[in-house]
């Protein structure tokens, strides 16, 4: 049965990263008292390698044989904290005293290196050539967890961490990156549990034990699948070799599972205490490719627990004497762990359930969907209830019972070749597949346990377009945030490591970087640049990242916006700490088409405490608010491990001091790392909770001092607090009187981690500020989206999911926006006056200069110019002035008084006035011509001064083509189809004048295309033989006239059979003899003329 493991849902949902813990003492048996890893060769199969395969050599330094049945060798990447991979069982062997035991891994059997001595065991272990961790384990269950947990595991026998591995014995890892002709071997066979001292680079010397280590094969037991599974989380027959019978319910011959599921014949429909389903692993055999769905087979092999999944590794199999059938068992969720255990490996029917996507993080990588039973996502427990409570424990258990992974029957990674060239399931550029979307399961599936969690597997692997479930296509995206009201809006946005210093820039300056790459191997985003940048790999990647962020911010449209995770350029050698901030503001303004945004610049003093390569920042909209005084950064040792809060006082534009408010942007320490008291305490709050508590306390004290300095108690605390709503740090802030606005006024969350949803991003308001809050919204553009749509996953798969024009997945955190009404400022009276040029003409636009005066300040608002109630134009008033443009043809001739109306903004009152204008009319003609075709009439449309009437006519070289009356400033002239020859002809259009409008003329070029002919062909010869010459009449029809020139040619394929001139629209062609009988396909082609374009027509000639 599967190990009782509640996946990541029972653990703390960490925001990012993982703790690195190096234990102070050794955990394996030192001094030659147990089996040890004696040598590892990690470059097998590489160019120039000494051997074709990688290997791990074990040694027995004791005086007694050591039985390794049920043991395994395992591998994990250097920085990994999850389960080890490449678990290689050591089989039925007994390592003799002083003997070595050779375990062969992956490599390249066609490489030029030497063959290994016949290995004692061959497996799938594939260690990195530079850094990694290799473990000898006295079980076949993969080790997992943080380094300290691995080294303390009771099943660990020996371990070697090398290079940059974070999991190693002692105080240092073994050497990094041995040459392709070197192994890492014990120095003089030393085993002091100090990897750094015990292992050195040496010439590889693989040695196998051979038959001396073989033991008699275990007896084969006949057992039912239920007997193999048992009722516990580990098979009672673990390590035994069994023969069992089952119906094949699922086959995974491709995609990595390499096996099939069996179910006891006659079972299903209801669940018992023990499962009747079992996974059979093919190992190195052809098992998976030799069985089909519905087969009933007998299979023999050893029982083992592979990462919590009970399985039999097939050594032999054959058709069972009697065929059987099974029935899917209906299953409904939530489903407790013991009931899942009782159904492990069985065919289940979950089609009647209500399902919601709660986890799509791995969808673009592994083709999985994390589902929650019911119509809601899984809540982050500490976002709903206090940690360390029975309510917390109950919610953790409820989440685990609701959760299941819908898998694709494969273990392939769709972001790495060759599988990145295969379309990933579920996701396309045009769909959404967001968390919160409903899912309908369409097929009968297998309840499976692997990858440390429960899964619903298809009965065969599926590909994109053939998924086992249907995701609702109802869009849940919001094009913009909800209207939150208020005269001022404040928002917080974590911009996901926005760095204008790219990895490429850092390397060019002498730094070093590792990258995440796309499927072509091109760097996309930084993995590790040491103390350098954390964002885009190069300028092209930065442009993609910036495009989405800019779209998101400009659409968010907050007046005050706090930013988190933006580059502190000063820490990377730049002279200006605000360089990245200014670059983002410039990009926002370029996109907005105006100088809409401004940055709040850093203060003169930037403390060292709380300074990092990323920082907090503010930007604001110039026309809405303005900073009051310089910004202030908190200098506190509490922020040594985080980003220091940045505070700024703001005032509405044209407001007064009574409307001022304070905003403080925060970015507390993340949950991903910490040691000592800051280690993860297992209470659901993650690592570094004491650090965040201290930061909350320092923030509260900081704000108290700022309120006194700014003489205001209107305060907003914004940012990424790396704390969910019910966690200790936020309780401190709330106990100080602040109100969590988005938690009070919305039911949406800002972050998704491991399928759990909660808010790390918050806006807190002091009581006075909260009294003016008008609304709040979480704009869910990021957290519900697949990470595959992020710039950092550009070109990860052949299916392109990236859309630079969309704000969706601009970051991993959703922005929070709050509306705020700071109250009214005292009203200020205004006077509006205007000045216009004299005279003005009806057919010309003109400008009116407007001045708005007030006893104090520079009025802002909008001025509108109108005539008898008709609005002529308007303009924004800035610094008391505006210019209104009156469009041409807006006014009739005569002296007029135009009305001015000023609508004041902020505290400036409305006012009205007039401006005198002298309007005169003059004639203006504009002519446009439709594109004509010879033989068909062409239209010339003429417009004149508004209200103009009179005769209009068109001429060419004195010849009148057409005429018409202009009525109310418009005339339409119809030029006969044969009046102009094909080509472009300048035509002069005259207006004779009338009703006070002066005569005028203009020129328009009329373009006439050649006529389009249609051909028809008729065979005139009554009987055509291979010895006669046929006559064919071809008629060239043209609209509006009869064609008199050109030639018609008749072809058979490319062979010319005859031609004739066109007269009166016809041509009679005498053909050369056609020597083949039957229906012969010919083509008549008219070559065109000065009036008509070429044309062709196919026809059939019957030859007897």
From TrEMBL:
Q: Which Pfam families match?
A: Big_3_5, Exo_endo_phos, LTD
Q: Does the keyword Oxidoreductase apply?
A: no
Which biological process terms from the Gene Ontology are attached to this UniProt entry?
A: carbohydrate metabolic process
Check the UniProt entry and state the signal peptide residues, or none.
1-28
- GO terms for MF: catalytic activity
Q: Which residues form a coiled coil?
A: none
Spell out the Gene3D superfamilies in the cross-references: Endonuclease/exonuclease/phosphatase (3.60.10.10), Immunoglobulins (2.60.40.10)
Pinpoint the LTD domain residues.
23-164
Keyword Signal recorded: yes
Q: PROSITE patterns under this entry?
A: LTD (PS51841)
UniProt keywords (A-Z) are: Signal
Q: Which InterPro entries match?
A: Big_3_5, Endo/exonu/phosph_ase_sf, Endo/exonuclease/phosphatase, ExeM-like, Ig-like_fold, Lamin_tail_dom, Lamin_tail_dom_sf
PANTHER family membership: ENDONUCLEASE/EXONUCLEASE/PHOSPHATASE FAMILY PROTEIN (AFU_ORTHOLOGUE AFUA_3G09210), ENDONUCLEASE_EXONUCLEASE_PHOSPHATASE FAMILY PROTEIN (AFU_ORTHOLOGUE AFUA_3G09210)
Q: Which NCBIfam families match?
A: ExeM_NucH_DNase
| Name this protein carries in UniProt | Nuclease
């Amino acid at each position: 049965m599967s190990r009782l493991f509640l996946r990541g849902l029972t653990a703390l949902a960490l925001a990012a990263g993982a703790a690195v813990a190096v234990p102070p003492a050794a955990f394996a048996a030192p001094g030659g008292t147990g089996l040890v890893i004696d040598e590892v060769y990690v470059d097998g199969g590489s160019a120039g390698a000494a051997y074709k395969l990688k290997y791990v050599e074990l040694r027995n330094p004791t005086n007694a044989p050591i039985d390794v049945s049920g043991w395994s060798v395992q591998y994990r990447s250097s920085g990994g904290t999850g389960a080890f991979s490449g678990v290689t069982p050591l089989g039925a062997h007994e390592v003799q005293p002083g003997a070595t035991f050779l375990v062969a891994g992956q490599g390249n059997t066609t490489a030029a290196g030497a063959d290994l001595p016949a290995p004692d065991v061959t497996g799938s272990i594939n260690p990195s050539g530079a850094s990694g961790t290799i473990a000898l384990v006295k079980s076949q269950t993969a080790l997992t967890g943080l380094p300290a947990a691995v080294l303390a595991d009771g099943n660990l026998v020996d371990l070697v961490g090398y290079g940059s591995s974070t999991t190693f014995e002692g105080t240092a890892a073994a050497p990094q990156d041995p040459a392709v002709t070197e192994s890492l071997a014990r120095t003089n066979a030393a085993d002091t549990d100090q990897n750094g001292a015990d292992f050195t680079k040496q010439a590889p010397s693989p040695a196998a034990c051979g038959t001396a280590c073989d033991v008699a094969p275990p007896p084969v037991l006949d057992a039912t699948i239920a007997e193999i599974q048992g009722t516990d989380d580990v098979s009672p027959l673990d390590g035994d070799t069994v023969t069992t019978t089952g119906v094949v319910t699922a086959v995974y011959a491709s995609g990595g599972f390499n096996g099939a599921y069996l179910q006891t014949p006659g079972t299903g429909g209801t669940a018992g205490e023990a499962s009747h389903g079992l996974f059979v692993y093919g190992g190195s055999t052809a098992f998976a490719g030799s069985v089909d769905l519905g087969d009933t087979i007998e299979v023999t092999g050893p029982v083992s627990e592979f990462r919590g999944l009970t399985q039999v590794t097939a050594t032999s199999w054959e058709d069972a004497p009697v065929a059987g059938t099974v029935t899917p068992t209906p299953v409904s969720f939530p489903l407790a762990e013991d009931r899942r255990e009782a159904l492990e490996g069985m065919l289940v029917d979950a089609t009647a359930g209500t399902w919601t996507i709660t986890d799509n993080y791995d969808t673009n990588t592994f083709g999985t969907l994390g589902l929650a039973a019911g119509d809601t996502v899984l809540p982050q427990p500490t976002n709903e209830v206090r940690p360390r409570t029975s309510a917390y424990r109950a919610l953790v258990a409820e989440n685990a019972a609701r959760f299941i992974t819908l898998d694709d029957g494969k273990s392939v990674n769709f972001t790495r070749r060759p599988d990145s060239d295969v379309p990933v399931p579920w996701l396309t550029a045009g769909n959404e597949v967001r968390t919160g979307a409903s899912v309908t399961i369409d097929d009968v599936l297998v309840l499976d346990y692997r990858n440390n969690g429960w899964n619903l597997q298809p009965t065969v692997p599926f590909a994109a377009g053939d998924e086992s479930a249907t995701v609702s296509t109802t869009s849940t995206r919001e094009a913009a945030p909800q209207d939150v009201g208020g005269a001022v809006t404040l928002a917080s946005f974590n911009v996901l490591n926005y760095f204008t210093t790219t990895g490429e820039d850092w390397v060019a300056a002498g730094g070093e970087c590792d990258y995440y790459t796309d499927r072509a191997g091109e760097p996309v985003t930084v993995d590790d640049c040491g103390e350098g940048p954390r964002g885009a790999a190069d300028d092209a990647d930065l442009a993609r990242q910036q495009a989405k962020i800019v779209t998101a911010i400009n659409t968010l449209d907050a007046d005050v916006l706090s930013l988190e995770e933006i580059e502190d350029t000063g820490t990377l050698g730049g002279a200006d700490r605000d360089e990245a901030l200014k670059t983002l503001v410039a990009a926002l303004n370029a996109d907005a088409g105006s100088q809409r945004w401004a940055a709040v610049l850093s203060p003169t003093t930037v403390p060292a405490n709380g300074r990092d390569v990323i920082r907090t920042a503010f930007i604001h909209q110039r026309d809405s608010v303005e900073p009051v005084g310089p910004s202030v950064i908190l200098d506190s040792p509490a922020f040594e491990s985080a980003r220091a809060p940045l505070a700024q006082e703001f005032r509405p534009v044209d407001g007064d001091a009574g409307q001022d408010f304070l905003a403080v942007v925060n970015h507390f320490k993340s949950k991903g790392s910490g040691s000592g008291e800051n280690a993860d305490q297992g209470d659901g709050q993650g690592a570094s909770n004491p650090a965040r508590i201290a930061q909350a306390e320092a923030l509260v004290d900081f704000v108290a001092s700022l309120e006194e300095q700014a003489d205001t108690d209107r305060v907003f605390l914004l940012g990424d607090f790396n704390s969910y709503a019910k966690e200790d740090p936020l309780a401190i802030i709330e106990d100080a009187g602040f109100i969590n606005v988005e938690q009070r006024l919305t039911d949406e969350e800002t972050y998704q981690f491991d399928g759990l949803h909660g808010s790390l991003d918050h806006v807190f308001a002091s009581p006075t500020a909260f009294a003016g809050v008008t609304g709040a919204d979480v704009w869910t553009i990021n957290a519900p989206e697949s990470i595959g749509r992020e710039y950092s996953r550009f070109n990860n798969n052949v299916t392109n999911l990236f859309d630079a024009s969309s704000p969706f997945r601009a970051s991993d955190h959703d922005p929070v926006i709050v509306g705020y009404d700071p109250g009214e400022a005292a009203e200020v009276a205004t006077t509006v006056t205007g000045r216009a040029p004299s005279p003005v003409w009806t057919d010309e636009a003109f400008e009116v200069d407007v001045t708005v005066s007030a006893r104090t300040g520079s009025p802002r608002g909008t001025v509108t110019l109108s005539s008898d109630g008709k609005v002529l134009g308007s303009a924004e008033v800035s610094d008391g002035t505006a210019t209104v443009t009156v469009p041409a043809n807006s006014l009739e001739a005569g002296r007029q008084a135009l009305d001015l109306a000023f609508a004041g903004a902020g505290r400036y009152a409305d006012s009205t006035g007039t401006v005198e204008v002298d309007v005169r009319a003059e004639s203006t003609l504009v002519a446009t011509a439709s594109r004509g075709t010879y033989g068909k009439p062409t239209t010339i449309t003429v417009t004149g001064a508004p209200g103009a009437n009179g005769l209009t006519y068109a001429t060419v070289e004195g010849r009148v083509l057409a005429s018409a009356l202009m009525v109310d400033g418009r005339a339409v002239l119809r030029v006969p189809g044969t009046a102009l020859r094909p080509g472009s002809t300048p035509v002069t259009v005259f207006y004779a004048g009338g009703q006070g409008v002066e005569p005028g003329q203009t020129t328009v070029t009329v373009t006439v295309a050649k006529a389009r002919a249609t051909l028809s062909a008729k065979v005139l010869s009554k009987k055509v033989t291979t010895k006669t010459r046929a006559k064919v009449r071809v008629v060239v029809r043209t609209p509006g006239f009869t064609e008199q020139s050109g030639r018609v040619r008749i072809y058979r394929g490319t062979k010319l059979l005859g031609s004739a001139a066109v007269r009166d629209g016809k041509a009679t062609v005498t053909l050369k003899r056609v020597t083949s009988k039957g229906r012969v396909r010919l083509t008549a082609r008219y070559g065109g003329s000065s009036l008509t374009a070429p044309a062709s027509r196919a026809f059939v000639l019957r030859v007897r």
